[in-house]
Amino acid sequence: MQVNLSWAAVPNALYYNVYRSPFSGGPYDLIAQSNPNPGQNPSSSQVQTTYQDGPGNLANGVNYYYVVSAVTVDGESPYSAEFTATYPGQPASPGSFTGVVT
After folding, report:
1. CATH classification at residue 51
2. Structural domains of the chain, count
3. DSSP letter string over 18-85?
4. Spatial contact of 4 and 18, defined as CB atoms under 8 Å apart
5. Among 21, 26, 39, 63, fewest CB within 10 Å belongs to which?
6. Does 57 map to a domain?
7. Which of 4, 15, 81 is nearest to 46 (CA)?
8. 44 touches 13 (CB < 8 A)
9. Distance, CA of 85 to CA of 87 (rounded, Å)
10. Domain-located, residue 102
11. Would 22 be classed as within a structural domain?
Protein backbone atom coordinates (compact mmCIF):
# COMPACT_ATOMS: atom_id res chain seq x y z
CA MET A 1 0.00 0.00 0.00
CA GLN A 2 1.18 3.50 -0.80
CA VAL A 3 -0.40 6.83 0.20
CA ASN A 4 0.18 10.06 -1.74
CA LEU A 5 -0.76 13.17 0.24
CA SER A 6 -1.01 16.79 -0.88
CA TRP A 7 -2.30 20.00 0.69
CA ALA A 8 -2.70 23.71 0.00
CA ALA A 9 0.24 25.95 0.80
CA VAL A 10 0.09 28.19 3.87
CA PRO A 11 1.55 31.71 3.51
CA ASN A 12 4.99 32.05 5.13
CA ALA A 13 5.28 28.32 5.89
CA LEU A 14 8.84 27.21 6.52
CA TYR A 15 7.88 23.54 6.39
CA TYR A 16 5.03 21.15 7.12
CA ASN A 17 4.86 18.33 9.65
CA VAL A 18 3.14 15.14 8.50
CA TYR A 19 1.59 12.92 11.17
CA ARG A 20 0.11 9.40 10.99
CA SER A 21 -1.91 7.15 13.28
CA PRO A 22 -3.57 3.74 12.97
CA PHE A 23 -6.48 5.26 14.95
CA SER A 24 -8.96 7.90 13.82
CA GLY A 25 -8.46 10.99 15.97
CA GLY A 26 -4.92 10.00 16.96
CA PRO A 27 -2.70 10.03 18.82
CA TYR A 28 -0.56 10.89 15.82
CA ASP A 29 3.14 10.24 15.34
CA LEU A 30 5.33 12.68 13.44
CA ILE A 31 6.52 10.77 10.38
CA ALA A 32 7.99 13.47 8.15
CA GLN A 33 8.79 17.11 7.58
CA SER A 34 8.25 18.48 4.09
CA ASN A 35 11.39 20.58 4.27
CA PRO A 36 13.76 19.52 7.07
CA ASN A 37 16.17 22.35 6.16
CA PRO A 38 13.90 25.41 5.89
CA GLY A 39 16.80 27.85 5.70
CA GLN A 40 17.63 26.48 2.25
CA ASN A 41 14.40 27.76 0.72
CA PRO A 42 14.03 31.52 0.39
CA SER A 43 10.22 31.49 0.12
CA SER A 44 7.28 29.37 1.23
CA SER A 45 6.29 28.87 -2.42
CA GLN A 46 9.25 26.49 -2.72
CA VAL A 47 8.29 24.39 0.30
CA GLN A 48 6.99 20.97 -0.69
CA THR A 49 3.23 20.41 -0.17
CA THR A 50 3.19 16.71 -0.96
CA TYR A 51 4.30 13.55 0.78
CA GLN A 52 4.45 9.90 -0.28
CA ASP A 53 4.13 7.27 2.45
CA GLY A 54 4.82 3.59 1.89
CA PRO A 55 4.90 1.01 0.66
CA GLY A 56 7.73 -0.30 2.84
CA ASN A 57 6.59 1.26 6.11
CA LEU A 58 2.84 0.55 5.83
CA ALA A 59 1.23 -2.77 6.71
CA ASN A 60 -1.36 -4.36 4.44
CA GLY A 61 -4.74 -4.70 6.09
CA VAL A 62 -4.39 -1.53 8.18
CA ASN A 63 -6.16 1.80 7.67
CA TYR A 64 -4.06 4.89 8.37
CA TYR A 65 -5.09 8.39 9.42
CA TYR A 66 -3.05 11.46 8.48
CA VAL A 67 -2.95 15.11 9.49
CA VAL A 68 -0.55 17.88 8.53
CA SER A 69 0.47 21.12 10.22
CA ALA A 70 2.28 24.21 8.96
CA VAL A 71 5.29 25.66 10.74
CA THR A 72 6.12 29.37 10.45
CA VAL A 73 8.40 31.66 12.43
CA ASP A 74 5.44 32.07 14.81
CA GLY A 75 5.18 28.34 15.58
CA GLU A 76 3.18 25.30 14.52
CA SER A 77 -0.42 25.50 13.34
CA PRO A 78 -3.21 23.24 14.56
CA TYR A 79 -3.65 19.97 12.69
CA SER A 80 -5.44 19.90 9.36
CA ALA A 81 -8.58 17.87 8.87
CA GLU A 82 -7.86 14.14 9.01
CA PHE A 83 -7.34 12.13 5.82
CA THR A 84 -8.20 8.42 5.96
CA ALA A 85 -6.17 6.01 3.85
CA THR A 86 -8.33 2.91 3.61
CA TYR A 87 -6.67 -0.40 2.85
CA PRO A 88 -7.93 -1.39 -0.60
CA GLY A 89 -8.12 -5.10 0.25
CA GLN A 90 -6.68 -8.10 -1.43
CA PRO A 91 -6.82 -8.31 -5.21
CA ALA A 92 -9.51 -10.46 -6.76
CA SER A 93 -8.68 -14.05 -7.61
CA PRO A 94 -7.97 -14.77 -11.27
CA GLY A 95 -11.12 -15.85 -13.09
CA SER A 96 -11.76 -18.33 -15.87
CA PHE A 97 -9.00 -20.65 -14.74
CA THR A 98 -8.99 -23.80 -16.85
CA GLY A 99 -6.68 -26.52 -17.92
CA VAL A 100 -6.42 -29.33 -20.42
CA VAL A 101 -5.26 -32.83 -19.59
CA THR A 102 -3.66 -34.68 -22.46
Report:
1. 2.60.40.10
2. 1
3. EEEESSTT---EEEEES-S-GGG-SSGGGS--EEEE-STTS-TT--EEEEEEEEETTEEPPP---EEE
4. no
5. 39
6. yes
7. 15
8. yes
9. 7
10. no
11. yes
* Residue 35 falls inside a structural domain: yes
What global pTM score does this model have?
0.80
Rounded CA-CA distance 6/68 in Å is 9
pLDDT in tens, 28-69: 999 999 876 665 555 555 788 999 998 888 888 889 999 999
pLDDT of residue 43: 56
User: Which residues form the domain of 79?
Assistant: 3-85
The β-bridge partners of 6 are 50
Asked if residue 18 lies in contact with residue 54, where contact means CB atoms within 8 angstroms, the answer is no
> Strand pairing of 64-72 and 75-76?
antiparallel
